[in-house]
Design a protein that fits this description.
476 residues, disordered N terminus, single chain, disordered C terminus, Outer membrane efflux proteins (OEP), 11 helices, alpha+beta
C-alpha cells in the first residue's frame, strides 16, 4: 500500500501544472464575421409607433385576443414539452459539473460460514471506493461547456416557442374575427336578397317583368345561402384550433367568438423597428442557434481530449471483524494513481473528431440561416403591414361607393327604372367589396402580428434558464 502514496501525491501535485496543457476550444465567432448584417433596413418603411414587444397583442384592443394569448402562453402543451426539455438540459449540466468531483461508493456485508470447518460467529465488513479523474486536457471542462450550451439552447428554444405560440393565438383570433364578420355580411346580404326575390315575384305576378328576373333572384340568393355553411365550418375549425392551442377541449372558444362578434382588430401602423443588429439580439431562435454552435464546438474538444493521456486517482478502504465491537480494529486501504494513453483504436477517435467538426459546421450554417431568416421576416412583414394598410384604405372607399350604389339601384329597380340584371351586378359588387374589406382588415392585423413576432416579441427569458437575458426583455 505504501508505494502507491508517492505516485498519488505526484499526480495530484502535477495536475495543476498539466492542466495548463489543456486543449483550447473555439468559441462562436462574432455575428458580423459569420453573416454580414446591414446597418439599416433596406425595404422596411420608417415608422414612429413604438411597440411593447412583450405584450404587443394588447395593442389590438381586443379582450379575447389578450385572454387567449395569455392562456396559450401558460397552458399550451408544446410549451410544456419545451419546458420539460429545459429541465432535462439543466439536469444534464448538473451531471457534467459532477464529473469534476470524486465518485465515492460504499459497501457492507455480513457473512456466516457453515460446515464442519466453519468459523464461529458472523463476519462483518465495511468498505468504500473512491475515484477521481484529473482533467488534465480539458475533457470534463469541455463536456461542461457543451452541457451549458445545450441548456442555453433549450432555454432560448422555449422562448422561441413562446414567441411563436403567442403569435399563433393572436393570429387565429384575428382570422376568426374576420370569418365571423364575413358571416355577418353574408347573413345581412341574404336578408336583402330575400327581399329582392320577393319583389321580383310581385313584379312578375303583376306582369311587369318576366320570370327570368325571378330565376336570377333565386340563383343569387341560393349562392349566398350556400356560402354561409362554409363560413360557419371555417369559423368552427379556427375556433377548435385555438382551443387546442390553449390546451382545452373545443366549445368555449367557439361560443365566445360566435355569440359576441366584434369588428376585426385595428393594429397600429408605421411601427418603429430597431436596427437590424438589435433586432437579431432579441430573436430567441438566433440566440438558440448560436448556443447550439457553442455546444458543438465544445464537443470537438471532448472528442480531441481522447487522444491525450487520462489520469485517475482511485482509492479503497475496508474494515472487518467478527462483531460490531471489533469492526474497526483493522482498517486496510490503498490509493492508486494511474495514467493511460490511447495507442491504437482503428481510427474511432479520429472519426468522432471529424463527426464533431461536421456537426459544428452544420450548427454554423444553421446560425447563419437563422440570421438571414430573421432579416427576411422583418423586411417582408414591415412591407406587408404598410401595403395592407393602403389596401384597407382603398377598399374602404370601394365599399362605401358600392353601398351607395346598391341603395340607389334597389330603389330604381322598385321604381322600374332599371332592369334586374343591373341590380344583381350592383349588389354582387357590394358583397364582394364588403368581403374584400374584411379580408384586408384581417390581413393588416395579421401583418402587424407577424412583424411583432419577427422583431422578437412575445417571449421572456425562462426563470433559471442560465441564459443571458435580452436587454429590455422582462423575466418570466
Amino acid at each position: 500500500m505504501k508505494p502507491a502514496w508517492p505516485a498519488a501525491w505526484v499526480l495530484a501535485l502535477a495536475a495543476p501544472v498539466l492542466s495548463g496543457c489543456a486543449l483550447t476550444r473555439a468559441e462562436p465567432p462574432p455575428m458580423a464575421s459569420v453573416q454580414p448584417v446591414p446597418d439599416q433596413w433596406v425595404l422596411a418603411p420608417p415608422g414612429d409607433t413604438e411597440v411593447a414587444l412583450d405584450r404587443y397583442w394588447t395593442m389590438l384592443d381586443d379582450p379575447l385576443v389578450a385572454e387567449l394569448v395569455a392562456k396559450a402562453r401558460s397552458e399550451n402543451l408544446d410549451i410544456a414539452q419545451a419546458a420539460a426539455r429545459l429541465r432535462a438540459a439543466r439536469a444534464g449540466l448538473r451531471q457534467a459539473e459532477a464529473e469534476f468531483l470524486p465518485n465515492v461508493s460504499g459497501s457492507g456485508s455480513a457473512q456466516r460460514d457453515i460446515g464442519d470447518f466453519a468459523r464461529d460467529g458472523v463476519q462483518l465488513s465495511l468498505g468504500a471506493n473512491a475515484q477521481w479523474e484529473a482533467d488534465l486536457f480539458g475533457r470534463i471542462d469541455a463536456s461542461r461547456d457543451a452541457a451549458r450550451g445545450d441548456l442555453q439552447a433549450a432555454g432560448y428554444s422555449l422562448g422561441d416557442l413562446q414567441r411563436v405560440i403567442a403569435a399563433q393565438a393572436a393570429s387565429q383570433v384575428v382570422s376568426a374575427r374576420a370569418i365571423a364578420a364575413q358571416l355577418v355580411i353574408a347573413r345581412e346580404t341574404l336578408i336583402i336578397q330575400d327581399d329582392n326575390l320577393q319583389i321580383a315575384r310581385w313584379r312578375n305576378q303583376a306582369g311587369l317583368v318576366s320570370s327570368f328576373d325571378v330565376e336570377q333572384a333565386r340563383t343569387q340568393r341560393a349562392q349566398t345561402a350556400a356560402s354561409i355553411p362554409q363560413l360557419e365550418s371555417n369559423l368552427t375549425a379556427v375556433a377548435n384550433a385555438i382551443s387546442t392551442l390553449i390546451g382545452e377541449p373545443p366549445g368555449r372558444v367557439y361560443r365566445a367568438l360566435a355569440e359576441a362578434p366584434r369588428p376585426v382588430p385595428v393594429p397600429p401602423v408605421r411601427v418603429a423597428i430597431a436596427a437590424p443588429a438589435d433586432t437579431l439580439r432579441r430573436r430567441p431562435d438566433v440566440s438558440a442557434a448560436e448556443a447550439r454552435l457553442a455546444a458543438s464546438l465544445a464537443r470537438i474538444g471532448v472528442a480531441r481530449a481522447q487522444l491525450y493521456p487520462l489520469a485517475r486517482l482511485t482509492g479503497t478502504i475496508g474494515t472487518g471483524g467478527n462483531d460490531v465491537g471489533d469492526l474497526f480494529d483493522i482498517v486496510t486501504g490503498n490509493v492508486i494513481a494511474s495514467l493511460s494513453q490511447l495507442i491504437f483504436d482503428g481510427g474511432r477517435v479520429r472519426g468522432q473528431i471529424e463527426a464533431a467538426r461536421a456537426n459544428a459546421d452544420g450548427s454554423l450554417a444553421d446560425w447563419r440561416q437563422s440570421i438571414l431568416t430573421a432579416l427576411e421576416e422583418v423586411e417582408s412583414a414591415a412591407v406587408d403591414l404598410d401595403t395592407s394598410d393602403a389596401r384597407v384604405t382603398a377598399l374602404t372607399e370601394a365599399s362605401d361607393g358600392a353601398q351607395n350604389a346598391a341603395i340607389l339601384a334597389r330603389s330604381q329597380y322598385q321604381a322600374g327604372l332599371i332592369d334586374f340584371q343591373t341590380l344583381l351586378v350592383t349588389e354582387s359588387q357590394l358583397l364582394s367589396a364588403r368581403t374584400a374589406l374584411v379580408s384586408a382588415q384581417g390581413a393588416r392585423a395579421q401583418a402587424f402580428i407577424t412583424l411583432a413576432r419577427a422583431m422578437g416579441g412575445g417571449w421572456a427569458v425562462p426563470e433559471g434558464a442560465a441564459i443571458n437575458p435580452v436587454p429590455g426583455e422582462p423575466q418570466a
